[in-house]
Write a structure and sequence with these properties.
65% of the residues lie in helices and 1% in strands. By secondary structure, it is mainly α. About 2% of the residues have low confidence. Helix 7 runs parallel beside helix 10. The chain is built from 22 helices and 2 strands. The relative contact order is 0.10. It is globular.
């Protein structure tokens, strides 16, 4: 049994040690700001590195080969442990009142959800704000690598459609993932740097620019201000946010190819084109819904930021769109499920699944009128395997079922219907803000009871890892072989 766990311990040990090392960055920030929290981050860093190194040492010398079953376990355990150890600075610093709140904030960060229980961000120590940004940046990078190297191999929700030839067998996952993660990390870092410089040019201070750049490119949405981007009241800043939220929602492997001289796939990819087209239409519709008709330009930017933020799962806001009326509330609730492109940092259902759903429905309609006809489902100019369509249909069905279950559980835990529905959708789609006065764009999750928070913690984890990656671990048959 231990032998089977060795590759899992090896990977998780390295990830935990890396997380611990990253805690030294906010420690340096707090030390420079003369904030005593540097001691908290230093202690948390040493503890996390020690445990991570212990895991790694216990499995050192093991083979890099990993079976499909081990990959399922590794991914789920990794995300949970990263959230668990990431919660230590929140708890020790006293910025939250309980372990539940610390775990909620940490899980929201590492899954790039953006829901928060911190009620006074304007006066929160800089180190904590920086740590929130780092968590989302690492979570965004991690989900890109996972989407390229792991999920296609596990054939989760149609992700096998994006399998790269280098990952043609499960046993190649570790060495190949190590090779490609370097290119992805460099690309991710360069885009983050560009975003930081753009925010600085738009008028942000250096600390706000760095933190917002990390959470924008990671489509995470953690801000340094209680009013989110609305605090800055700048159309220049809004335009930077929209631009880089969109870039964060495009498959990063296409950016890697473009940097290497092959930019053609970036402009010809059907998923990217559909995503941009749908986003443009939704922004125009939200602009029309916006009751602020006196300043059309400002109204357009409010629509652009809030729509892009919800569609990509970022979670920023510039205004309380709940106040736009019942029709707008329903509109914003629906679009939070859409998501960006597969292989990006964005959350939600993802555009490619809607494309496959549409193509499959179109094929079935044609068969009704021409029963003897032969109709081939295509995606991005290539024939689509039936297994992909089936996996996508299963994903939609499972997503709806889990959404209903989470919403019912939240309602039973004491939340009203609107809060339960929007919190369930926001957590599963990893968006952050919900609807209503409690968890809306101007609210936080702090007032929710502990049972509701733990339900949402697991919902965020399930949503970020594409549902089946986590749920398969609860099937008895999974452990029998």
């Amino acid at each position: 049994m231990f032998t089977a766990l060795r590759p899992i311990l090896l990977v998780n040990g390295l990830l935990i040690a890396l997380l611990g090392a990253s805690m030294l960055l906010p420690a340096i920030v707090d030390l420079m700001a003369d904030n005593d929290d540097w001691q908290v981050f230093t202690a948390a860093s040493l503890l996390t590195i020690l445990i991570g190194f212990g895991f790694y040492s216990s499995a050192r010398g093991t083979s890099n080969d990993m079976s499909t079953r081990q990959a399922f376990i590794m991914v789920t355990v990794a995300w949970f442990l990263l959230a668990l150890f990431g919660s230590i600075p929140y708890l020790l610093s006293g910025v939250v009142d309980s372990f539940t709140d610390a775990m909620f904030e940490s899980m929201s960060g590492i899954t790039t959800t953006g829901a928060t229980v911190i009620t006074d961000l304007n006066h929160t120590p800089l180190g904590i704000l920086f740590w929130r940004g780092i968590q989302q940046w690492l979570g965004g990078l991690g989900i890109i690598v996972m989407a390229v190297a792991v999920l296609p191999m596990l054939q989760i929700g149609g992700m096998q459609l994006f399998k790269i030839e280098a990952f043609d067998t499960a046993e190649k996952i570790m060495p190949r993932a190590t090779q490609i993660s370097g290119s992805l990390t460099l690309t991710f870092a360069l885009i983050t740097l560009a975003c930081t410089l753009a925010y600085l040019a738009a008028g942000m201070k250096i600390d706000d620019a760095v933190i917002h750049a990390m959470t924008t490119v990671a489509t995470g949405g953690y801000s340094t201000k209680d009013a989110s981007l609305g605090h800055f009241d700048s159309m220049w800043i809004d335009s930077v946010a929209v631009t880089f939220m969109i870039l964060g929602s495009i498959p990063f492997i296409l950016f890697v190819q473009a940097i290497r001289g092959n930019s053609k796939p970036l402009f010809e990819n059907s998923q990217v084109r559909v995503f941009l087209g749908v986003l443009a239409l939704l922004i125009l519709f939200a602009w029309w819904l916006n009751p602020n008709k006196e300043d059309q330009l400002q109204g357009f930017f409010h629509a652009a930021v809030n729509v892009t933020s919800l569609v990509t799962g970022t979670g920023y806001s510039t205004t309380d769109y709940n106040a736009w009326g019942p029709a707008s509330q329903m509109f914003f609730f629906i679009i939070m499920f859409i998501g960006g492109c597969a292989g990006s940092t964005s959350c939600g259902i993802k555009i490619f699944r809607f494309q496959i759903l549409f193509e499959t429905a179109k094929q079935n309609i044609k068969r009704i009128f021409q029963p003897n006809g032969i109709f081939v489902v295509q995606y991005n100019g290539k024939r689509l395997d039936q297994s992909v369509s089936t996996a996508v249909m299963n994903f939609f069905f499972l997503f709806i079922i889990i959404f209903i279950v989470v919403a019912v559980l939240l309602n039973l835990s004491g939340l009203n219907v609107i809060t339960s529905l929007s919190a369930a959708g926001s957590a599963l789609a990893n968006v952050g803000p919900g609807m209503g006065n409690i968890i809306g764009p101007n609210g936080t999750y702090q007032s929710l009871n502990d049972s509701s928070k733990w339900i949402l913690i697991f919902a965020m984890l399930i949503g970020r890892l594409e549902l089946l990656t986590v749920l398969v671990l609860f099937i008895p048959r999974f452990w029998r072989y």
